[in-house]
Write a structure and sequence with these properties.
- The protein is an alpha+beta fold.
- The protein has one domain: PK beta-barrel domain-like (M1 Pyruvate Kinase, Domain 3), CATH 2.40.33.20.
- Helix content is 14%, strand content 33%.
- It contains 4 helices and 13 strands.
- Strands 1-6-5-11-8-7-13 form a 7-stranded mixed beta barrel. Strands 4-3-12 form a 3-stranded antiparallel beta sheet, with no helix packed on it. A two-stranded antiparallel sheet has the order 9-10.
- Strand 7 and strand 8 form a beta hairpin.
- It is globular.
Length: 181
């Protein structure tokens, strides 16, 4: 298995589609990324706050594999780390293939528990026309396939920077597939 590493870290204090590249980010246990608009115990995503502001925030950290950026470039889209709103961009790990509850040990201290799949919305086409079709589709069986990354909660805080290793610990079996959160 190839080594998984962090290739980009991003945060933005404002609710914008893309996040700004940073030299490092600090994860805070139970809250998310320090200084990021999605930091909090309860949900911070605008549409979810409008529905029920008391929901637990299962979307504290957004991760995307850089291999998605490669795939998008092959379709004519130019996407860099952070531009799809992710906090952490990885390379060498199939994030979408992880089960619910998988733990990612990032760098020397941080631990993120994967809670589910990001559900991409139409804002992605505002960023680049036709991009939604590339990250949200259907498989041969007609099932929805979401490729816009995974969401997680911070179990243990710590600093994360490009070049940090990511080690995966799977939860006890049976493994539950990721669903949208």
């Amino acid at each position: 298995m190839p080594e998984c590493v962090v290739v980009g870290v991003n945060a933005d204090a404002q609710h914008r589609f893309s996040k700004q590249p940073q030299p490092s980010i600090r994860l805070i246990a139970g809250l998310g990324v320090e200084g990021d608009a999605h930091l909090g115990v309860t949900v911070q995503h605008r549409s979810r706050v409008a529905r029920d502001p008391s929901q637990l925030n299962l979307r504290q950290v957004h991760l995307i594999q850089a291999e998605l950026h490669d795939e998008l470039r092959a379709t004519g889209h130019v996407v860099e780390a952070g531009q799809l709103g992710e906090n952490i961009t990885t390379r060498g790990l199939d994030l979408l293939g992880l089960p619910t509850g998988a733990r990612l040990y990032v760098g020397t201290d941080a631990v993120i528990e994967v809670t589910g799949l990001r559900n991409p919305c139409s804002q992605i086409d505002d960023f680049q026309a036709g991009l939604l079709k590339q990250v949200l589709g259907r498989d041969e069986g007609g099932n929805v396939v979401r490729k816009a990354g995974v969401m997680g909660i911070v179990v243990r805080g710590g600093d994360v920077r490009p070049g940090d290793r990511v080690v995966v610990a799977l939860p006890p079996a049976p493994h539950l597939p990721l669903e949208r959160v």
